[in-house]
Specification:
Blueprint lengths: L3 E7 L1 E2 L6 E2 L6 E2 L4 H7 L25 E3 L9 E7 L4 E7 L48 H8 L2 H5 L6 H6 L7 H13 L24 E9 L10 H4 L10 E2 L1 H13 L3 E10 L4 E9 L1 E2 L4 E5 L6 H11 L5 E2 H17 L6 E6 L5 E7 L3 E8 L16 H5 L12 H12 L4 E10 L7 E9 L3 E8 L2 E3 L5 E3 L5 E11 L4 E9 L9 E9 L12 E12 L16 E14 L5 E14 L11 E2 L5 E2 L12 E14 L2 E3 L2 E14 L9 E13 L13 E13 L7 E3 L14 E3 L1 E13 L4 E11 L11 H4 L5 E11 L2 E8 L4 E8 L4
Parallel strand pairs: 2-10, 8-11, 13-16, 17-19
Antiparallel strand pairs: 1-7, 3-4, 5-10, 6-7, 8-9, 10-11, 12-14, 15-16, 18-19, 20-23, 21-22, 23-24, 24-25, 25-26, 26-27, 27-28, 28-31, 29-30, 31-33, 32-33, 33-34, 34-35, 35-38, 36-37, 38-39, 39-40, 40-41, 41-42
Helix pairs in contact: 8-9
Protein name: Surface antigen variable number
Subcellular location: Plastid, Chloroplast outer membrane
GO cellular component, one term: chloroplast outer membrane
Length: 824
């Protein structure tokens, strides 16, 4: 059965300075002039049967008061009629439930509860029993007004007032409390203003409304508004209202605003007072908080992940209060939603409460269940591509994120998706955009915006070497240009398979003299899309040349002729990813190693310069064979456990790396060896992390690295000591080459204010463990190197650059280095 509930709405517009107080809780009553009372006497109606006191005296003003109180029924009220006279009652009718309109006293009908009828300056009765729907959430972010502002509908905006564009922008901002301090001065100024509402006049200097029955809103104020954590703020409550600075308002607009505020369920009553200001009128909303019995039980409805301990925690906190108020419910809201936030479930919120009347409170939650996951390809302007057709197959994106229909949206899944999809190197812009489902706003749709990179690229570089000439001026070392050519295909067959290639030479005119190349193929998910380990297959062909640090002189030796190591071969292997950072791989390498001198000729022995200027060619052997060329095949395994993360730009966590190379002789005289290396690093926070600070935390780094070679050990595969990734006070290989080694380091990283970076002090030590003599020809002794060393120093890190001051403890000297990248 449909029943109409009439709610008496009373709009009070104070157009003058009231001088007396009415009987209703001390609210100001207007002083009407004799002519005004006579003119509008037929429109004033007092539902209590008597006129309020205080309507004597002189003053050019009248009052139109609004007091809106809502009946709560078992069904949601439906707005069916809004009517208003020029001055007097505004009656708002609702459909649903029994008729609950009061008769002017403090009681209501027991079927539906109700408010007493409103009078001029009077108020209705208190609510009787009924089913309450308590909405403890902020008002909708996108109101009709803000939506028109967003869409650029200036015609619709102008319909709300005659403010210019700048004032309309300011209308979306919350008003400061400075207007409260101006009320008294404004009232005194308004005494001298001639106001005739019947003729539609406004205060001097105000903008004229388009409708004579409307007025311009200058400010919006709030009185008796509860505050505290979890309670909607003034700006949140007022965000969707019609009453905004610069807006043209009617009595219907105010009625709608009052209804919207009352629908939040936060307040037992909301009044609106309208008083004149310099350039319009100030709208003041007066709130009265609801009070219920003490909470006896608490339950969360609609949750799938919330533990029972959270409900017990809420109940314990609620029973500390004798009554159930907005603040008690706000505390419950903070506890429940705090749990969701801590788990990354950012859409987990309380939609409303009920059961406060009998103390059995039920909190209804929405958790943000995912109803759709869609990849959206966009162009350079981030606009969707027609037909949503991209080069990349949709499955390539789907296998890189954890979003599943039916699961809850988690912000950590979004971060992981951003990282993993971007690391595919197929896209230069990736965005994860969650949005409410249009059919069910309590659920979430996830759009992944993707802007694809060019699938095919090629680059060419030319370079000429310059050195000081005879007169000290720069001169070309050679007119023949060197350089490199690079090409790649990032998305073979649309499945993210990649092909890379590069060719480099020091002489493009005769590249056969010095040609280096690398061709690499990468096949991700080689075991299928459902492979949880993300197994990938990689194959490469290579030809490279590097200067060997094994054949390097010590600090007391003159310049040593360099030995270049050429490596040409192929390698292939598979890699499994347990996490994004922890992985293991197994592969096979077949290579030919040739050692050459600076002229490019094959050399079998190292050399050094004697005191008489001649070269000694009886140095350590460069290869295992007598020809200067070794052919080797070996298996290579790597395992890395990495739990580090970045906290404000500084690594924190642990990293362990193990590498083992085992030779496989494919003929009887082939080399047999086992080369293993272990590296352990710990990044320890000195102080707890400060969530409110953007400075990196102080960190202590502990590092240990060790290695050993069994069997045949060629000099080019020996461990080298010294350098930016070994012992920082020395150059690469300056301390020696060894079959076994041990390295330790300690570093303290201290944040530097303002720079968002850190400075550091360090101590490092490394040793060959007296194993260098077991190498063929003992290169450490031959080149007069120490075989061990210590260093300490300090530095600062700015972005990828490290500036370090290091002390060589062997010689007692210090040096400054500028290096790139991380030490550990």
């Amino acid at each position: 059965m449909n029943t109409v509930i009439s709610v008496a709405t009373w709009v009070r517009v104070d157009l003058g300075q009231p001088t007396a107080r009415g009987p209703r809780r001390g609210i100001k009553q207007p002083v009407l002039s004799r002519a005004t009372r006579k003119k509008y006497s037929h429109q004033f109606r007092d539902t209590r049967g008597s006129r309020p006191a205080g309507h004597s005296g002189h003053g050019r003003a009248f009052s139109l008061g609004i007091t809106l109180a809502r009946e709560h029924t078992s069904g949601q009220p439906k707005l069916t009629k809004v009517s208003a006279s020029d001055v007097g009652d505004v009656e708002i009718s609702y459909e649903g439930g029994q008729n609950g309109r009061g008769n002017g006293d403090d009681t209501g009908d027991s079927n539906g509860g109700g408010h007493g009828g409103g009078g001029n300056g009077g108020s209705g009765g208190e609510e009787s029993e009924g089913n309450y729907l308590f909405l403890l959430t902020a008002l909708p972010v996108f109101s009709e007004y803000s939506q028109m502002l967003k869409d650029g509908d200036t015609e619709g905006l102008e319909g709300r007032g005659n403010a210019d564009e700048e004032e309309l922008d300011r209308a979306t901002m919350d008003e400061d409390e400075e207007y409260d301090d101006e009320n008294d001065e404004d009232d005194e100024d308004d005494e001298d203003e001639d106001i005739d509402v019947g003729r539609g006049k406004q205060p001097r200097g105000s903008k004229q409304p388009r409708n004579k029955d409307n007025f311009i809103c200058e400010s919006v104020l709030a009185t008796n508004l509860p505050t505290g954590p979890g309670i909607p703020t003034k700006s949140e409550l007022f965000q969707g209202l019609n009453a905004r600075k610069g807006a043209e308002l009617s009595k219907k607009d105010l009625s709608d605003d009052l209804e919207q505020l009352l629908n939040t369920g936060l307040f037992a009553n909301v009044d609106a007072n309208v008083t004149p200001k310099h350039d319009g009128y100030a709208v003041e909303f007066v709130f009265r908080e609801k009070i219920w019995p003490q909470v006896q039980s608490f339950r969360v409805a609609g949750s799938t992940v919330l533990p029972k301990e959270i409900e017990q925690e809420v109940l314990k906190a609620a029973r500390k209060s004798q009554n159930c108020t907005v603040r008690v419910l706000a505390t419950a809201k903070n506890i429940v939603e705090g749990y969701y936030t801590s788990k990354g479930l950012t859409f987990g919120t309380i939609s409303h409460f009920d059961g406060m009347e009998n103390g059995e409170v039920v909190a209804h939650v929405i958790e943000g269940e995912i109803t759709r996951v869609q990849s959206v390809f966009v162009d350079e302007n981030l606009q969707p591509v027609p037909g949503n057709k991209g080069v990349t197959h949709p499955r390539v994106i789907q296998r890189e994120h954890n979003f599943q229909v039916g699961n809850l949206y988690n912000v950590e899944d979004a971060k992981t998706a951003l990282r993993d999809i971007f690391l595919l190197q197929l896209f230069d812009n990736v965005q994860v955009v969650p949005k409410p489902d249009e059919r069910d706003p309590s659920k979430v749709q996830v759009d992944i915006l993707l802007r694809e990179r060019p699938t095919k690229t090629a680059e060419t570089e030319l370079e000429w070497s310059i050195a000081p000439g005879e007169n000290g001026r720069p001169d070309l070392v050679s007119a023949r240009p060197g350089g490199s050519v690079f090409f790649e295909h990032r998305n073979l067959d649309r499945w993210g398979r990649q092909l890379f290639g590069s060719i480099s030479t020091a002489n493009f005119l005769q590249p056969q003299e010095d040609l280096g190349f690398k061709l690499e193929y990468n096949h991700p998910y080689c075991k299928g899309d459902t492979d949880v380990d993300r197994t990938s297959f990689k194959a490469a062909a290579f030809n490279s040349r590097k200067l060997s640090p094994v054949f390097t002189g010590g600090p007391l030796m003159q310049e040593v002729p360099g030995v270049w190591v050429d490596r040409a071969g192929i390698k292939a292997g598979i890699c499994q990813n347990f996490t994004r950072q922890s992985k293991c791989s197994l592969g096979a390498v077949l290579e030919e190693v040739t050692t050459r001198d600076d002229s490019g000729a094959v050399c079998v022995f190292g050399a050094k310069q004697l005191s008489n200027g001649s070269l000694s060619l009886d140095g350590p052997r460069t290869t295992l064979s007598d020809t200067g060329t070794d052919r080797v095949i070996f298996l290579q395994g790597n395992a890395m456990r990495d739990t580090t993360k970045f906290v404000n730009g500084t690594q924190v966590g642990a990293r362990d790396i193990l590498q083992v190379d085992q030779s496989v002789p494919f003929w009887l005289n082939g080399p047999i060896f086992n080369r293993s290396k272990l590296e352990l690093t710990r990044f320890l926070k000195v102080l707890p992390e400060n969530q409110k600070s953007s400075q990196p935390p102080p960190v202590v780094v502990l590092h240990t690295r060790a290695g050993h070679i069994l069997g045949n050990c060629a000099a080019y595969d020996a461990f080298t000591l010294g350098g930016p990734h070994s012992c920082r006070g020395y150059t690469v290989g300056e301390l020696g080459a060894a079959r076994s080694f041990l390295e330790t380091a300690v570093e303290l990283r201290i944040p530097i204010p303002i720079t968002l970076s850190h400075g550091f002090i360090f101590w490092e030590r490394c040793s060959d463990l007296s194993s260098s003599s077991t190498l063929s020809g003992s290169p450490t002794e031959f080149y007069r190197r120490a075989g061990k060393g210590r260093t300490h120093g300090a530095g600062v890190k700015l972005g990828p650059v490290r500036a370090e001051w290091c002390v060589d403890c062997n010689s007692g000297t210090a040096s400054t280095f500028i290096r790139f990248g991380e030490r550990f």
